[in-house]
Amino acid sequence: MKFGGTSVGSVESILSVKRIVERQDEAVIVVVSALGGVTDKLIKTGQMAVDGDLSYQKSFREIAVRHEEMIGSILPAGQKREALLAQVNNLLEELRSIYQGVYLIHDLSPKTMAAIVSYGERISSCIVATLIDGAEWFDSREFIKTEFKAGKNRLLRELTNKLVRQTWQKVPKVSIVGGFISTDAESGEVTNLGRGGSDYTASIIAAALDASVLEIWTDVDGFMTADPRVISSAYVIPELSYIEAMELSNFGAKVVYPPTIYPVCIKHIPILIKNTFNPDAPGSIIKDEVKDDSRSIKGISSIKGTTLITVSGLSMVGVIGVNRRIFTCLADNGISVFMVSQASSENSTSIGVRDEDADKACRVLDAEFRKEIEDGSIFPMIAEKGLATVAVVGEKMKHVPGIAGKLFGTLGRSGISIITCAWGASETNISFVINQNLLRKALNVIHDSFFLSEYQVLNLFVCGVGTVGGSLLDQIRRQQEKLMRELRLKLVVVGIASGHNAIFSREGINLENYREQLAAAPASSIGRLHDEVIGMNIFNSVFVDCTASPDVAGLYADFLEHNINVVAANKIAASSDYADYRHLKEISKQRGVKFLFETNVGAGLPIIRTINDLRNSGDKILRIEAVLSGTLNYIFNTISEAVPFSETVRMAKEEGYSEPDPRIDLSGKDVIRKLVILAREAGYEVSQEDVEARLFIPQSFFEGTLDEFWQNLPRLDADFEARRKELERQGKVWRFVAKLEKQGSTPDGKAVAKVSVSLEEFDRNHSFYVLEGSNNIVLLTTERYREYPMLIQGYGAGASVTAAGVFADIMSLA
After folding, report:
1. CA 573 to CA 205: how far, in whole Å?
2. Given the DSSP bridges, would you call strands 135-138 and 174-178 parallel, antiparallel or unpaired?
3. Burial class (CB in 10 A: 0-12, 13-18, 19+), 234
4. pLDDT at 253 over 80
5. Which residues have CB under 8 Å from 433's CB, separation 6+?
6. Percent of the chain having pLDDT more than 90?
7. What percent of the chain has pLDDT over 70?
8. How far apart (Å, rounded) are the C-alpha atoms in residues 141 and 153?
9. Packing angle, helices 56-74 and 79-105, rounded to 10
10. Mean pLDDT, rounded, for 728-744
């Protein structure tokens, strides 16, 4: 059983260690680290001493007090405590003398530093041995042996195993050992197994003695699918194979020190990861064979501070021994390479090293290939810094075709470029290098897309909290729990913007009181909205525009370029200049994201989607006839002898059918925009200027102020009433109709259409006759639906149905 620094770092935790050990049924060997933070403090104090900083004495005193206070807190007054204090004080006095010598001679050799840091484990193991009833203390310096080779202290495995077996010829109920510490086999000087070496000590002893299990007690519940500080939905992996654990550990998962796994793996001894602070949690078990798991990826880990060094040159092609020189040179200089990628043409090899080794690596490689660089056959070393390496690990990946394609496609859709990658023939680990500022986004999108998360997440930025935006946020709030329960989909609103204020939160905004949060938020601007949405750099993100703002629509291109999906109720972008519309469609296609605007026409009706489905299946749109203005339809359905024309316009505004300025609806501009959008989606290159508009209100009414419009509007009532009576006598109704008629094709094959909007009369025999309230209707004549056109009809206006249509676009993205 190995207990780390946090497990023995506080009174509460060290007493938990005592309870855990004492309740074991079989004999146990307990390996302990130094008290949490002590190793770093020992190193820092030594550095202060060698620098001639007299405050090293204060720092040393803090180390002494830390241990003395721990002893005073966990052991009652008496002979046992006094004996331990005397033992610890003797060790501290030795340590003080070493520090004083370092201060006086201004020299701190690696050997002296190794001696200094050994006191952390030597003291902590004495404390734990005294605390646990019946425990026997063993000195790891006596049996963990190393030799100095290639610039590092390396374990002498056979000698160590022999000494371990001799030490435990008779195994007591509880044995206590200080981890990390070792001694040189020749000189007997104190060495160590490196930071994290206490895990390794425990593994060495477990393997030598054929232990039933190696338990690593730490401050987490087990191996996680990813770093929970980056991915809140990360969870404990119940079972891992040795290979999976090794791959995750090598690439930054700090649960187990990587060398720990090998000694117990070859002996088939399982490793159990447990939490000292939550001992009843099941933890993670690492063993030979794991239970079948439907997930192809077991976990993700990463290394920040990666530098990619590229060795390239035309003379490398087909030349034997270049890679040997690269790796021999780096090994001789103590530089570790954790990733290699080579082009099949052999003209370049890229190696991943840590940032702190990068400059030295370039320097020694430039020296190694000096002659080749001078004659131009090899280029000087190129180092690219500011990178991160991600490892996606799972033994089942080898059985799943297309896993790499899905992985890289997922990253690409999120705007994450792969700089280089490596995938061994074992197919257990796909490693790739990306820009470090994209690491959080990459980890989250992989975790989400490969079902490692409990829920799949869609992060929403909602702009506009008027009738449509407010209704949408209310619908999302009411549906969130159901979507999580039934579809395992988590909609997280990470940004909300109104015309004046904006709030942003990566963790999500509480929709119960977002209006109060907005009111208290600082003033916002279009520039801040742009910078916050892009700057958050969040995965699976969707910008939802519920405004009618041209400034907001102007942000779409940049959002799409940054792989942010766009869902728009705002009609401006899709009906603006044709070149701008095409540009947005092309960006979304190139970047693998969506630009959806179903509610631009017909609110929640599936009109645009149907046109796209028809065209994608090979059909051609020949004719469109549509009543697309819920506002105008409401007006012409409501007008009567008792309700004059001017009053119906006022009622449409009050009911929320019309724009705040009803002239936008009455001018036909809204219908023209909708017709342009339908024409473009039907495959015609049409602009608003191409639409022939035959209006039913004199142009003079659209000039002047809004107040003047309301004042003058009743002047039209008498004429409209006379025309209405004649229409009623004929059994007809008015409908404001948008039309598209295919006229042929240009020489280069582009379809040409005539487009118009006008007020027309229809009798009972036409589909447009029975159209109640604010309903919309669309007739689509296509090559397939030529004799009997396809009809789409339903509510075409209103905040709730428009919001529902926006919600449907969001769900299609999910």
Report:
1. 69
2. parallel
3. buried
4. no
5. 306, 308, 339, 352, 387, 388, 389, 390, 418, 419, 420, 421
6. 72
7. 98
8. 14
9. 170
10. 94
Plot region of 258 (φ>0 → left; ψ -120 to 50 → alpha; else → beta)? alpha
Compute and round to an integer the Cα radius of gyration of the chain.
37
Tokens, residue 374? 């001078």
Region class of 742: left (phi > 0), else alpha (psi between -120 and 50), else beta: beta
Q: What is the pLDDT of residues 263-319, one digit of tens each?
A: 999 999 999 999 999 999 999 999 988 886 777 888 898 889 999 999 888 767 666
Q: What integer best gives the mean pLDDT of the chain?
A: 92
Q: Is the pLDDT of residue 452 over 70?
A: no
* Predicted confidence (pLDDT) per residue in 569-606, tens digit: 999 999 999 999 999 999 999 998 999 999 999 888 99
Residue 582 is predicted with a pLDDT of 96
SS3 at position 334: coil
> Of the listed 2, 441, 490, 674, which one is catalytic?
674
Burial 140-153 (b: 16+ CB within 10 A, else e): bbebbbbebeeeeb
- Cβ within 8 Å of residue 444, ≥6 positions away: 230, 231, 457, 538, 539, 540
Give the Å distances, CA to CA, from 640 to 41, 728, 767.
88, 10, 22
Dist. CA 70–CA 56, nearest whole Å: 21
Tokens 């989400």 belong to 448
Alpha helices in 562-600 (DSSP H): 572-575, 578-591
Edge-first strand order for the sheet with 145-149 is: 152-155, 145-149, 181-184, 190-192
C-alpha–C-alpha distance, residues 606 and 627, integer Å: 15
| 674 labelled catalytic | yes
Q: Name which of 319, 309, 298 is nearest 223 in CA terms.
A: 298
User: Distance between CA 240 and CA 221 in Å, rounded?
Assistant: 14
Alpha helices in 414-466 (DSSP H): 439-449
Helices (H), 547-655: 550-553, 556-561, 572-575, 578-591, 607-616, 630-638, 645-654
Per-residue pLDDT, averaged over 503-518, amounts to 94
Tokens of 298: 């077991």
Residue 749: pLDDT band with limits 50, 70, 90? confident
Phi, psi of 271 (to 5 degrees): -110, 125
Bridge-partner residues for 596, per DSSP?
567
Tell me what pLDDT residue 808 has: 94
* C-alpha–C-alpha distance, residues 397 and 237, integer Å: 16
- C-alpha span between 224 and 235 (Å, rounded): 5
**pLDDT at 543 > cutoff 70:** yes
